[in-house]
Hints:
By secondary structure, the protein is mostly helical. It has one domain (about 5-195): Arp2/3 complex 21 kDa subunit ARPC3 (Orthogonal Bundle), CATH 1.10.1760.20. It has eight helices and two strands. It has helices spanning about 5-10, 15-40, 55-65, 65-80, 100-120, 125-155, 155-165, 170-195, and strands spanning about 40, 50. The longest helix has 28 residues, at about 170-195.
Amino acid sequence: MQMTNTIAGVFRPVDKVRGIVFDLLIVICGSLLVGISAKIRVYLPFSPVPVTGQTFVVLMLGALFGSYRGGLTMLAYLLEGVLGLPVFTNISGAAALFGPTGGYLVGFVVAAYIVGRLAEMGWDRRVATTVAAMLIGDAVLLVFGFVWLTLLLADVRTAFITGVVAFVPGDISKIMLAAAIFPVSWKLLKRLRDKN
Length: 196
């Protein structure tokens, strides 16, 4: 087994056609997983944006797939939602991009790409750098969401409290989980490679 720069890359077929099919399949499956994670939600009484499982899935898929496949996965997810598939948290169709969650949705693409790029550079192989990569990706998501909420609410303080502060405790636990998963996964893959 030849080791490559992302976990998905380890399993990608070398054959060009099979590699393209592999890429398409993981992008589609990943986008559907993001849609499913949107349905795992908790509504906070003071925030127009619910807490969902999406942050965790977006960052995980970015690290798992790498920059291009991770970014394409999020673009596919947005396209599915804009076309009316029930993959967004509350609203179907393009209207979701203009609602309170619009900034986060656009941020998914950028965050997955950045975390994927960091994973390609080996940041997902140690706990400390995995935490750093996930923190950077999460910060990108929160900035996109905060800026959009500020524009919608015309109130910086409210946007910061309801769109950033409200999500920090949950995001930290998701990042810690990711930090436990990736380094262990790479060690397991190394053992498999050494046996072959």
